[in-house]
Amino acid sequence: xxxxxxxxxxxxxxxxxxxxxxxxxxxxxxxxxxxxxxxxxxxxxxxxxxxxxxxxxxxxxxxxxxxxxxxxxxxxxxxxxx
Length: 82
Known about the structure:
This protein has helices spanning about 5-10, 15-20, 40-65, 70-80, and strands spanning about 1-5, 25-30, 30-35. The termini are far apart. With about 80 residues, it is α+β, with helices and mostly antiparallel strands. The chain contains 4 helices and 3 strands; from the N terminus they run βααββαα. The protein folds into 2 domains: about 1-40, YefM-like domain (YefM-like fold, 3-Layer(aba) Sandwich), CATH 3.40.1620; about 40-80. The chain has a 3-stranded mixed sheet.
């Protein structure tokens, strides 16, 4: 990963965008990491992975709930706001 100061990022924004196409770029400000710039392709890949992981998590929870006897009717009763 490449690191660049916030000042340098502002002054060389075009270069920052080019670097981000090859690898994520961390922007630092006052010796702290404050942001990461990454390519759209990498962002989409991470978003897709996150969604896939969430869907698998959701399926596993549903399997466990069903195995323990949770039905749609019971769930509806539990979630009812009376």
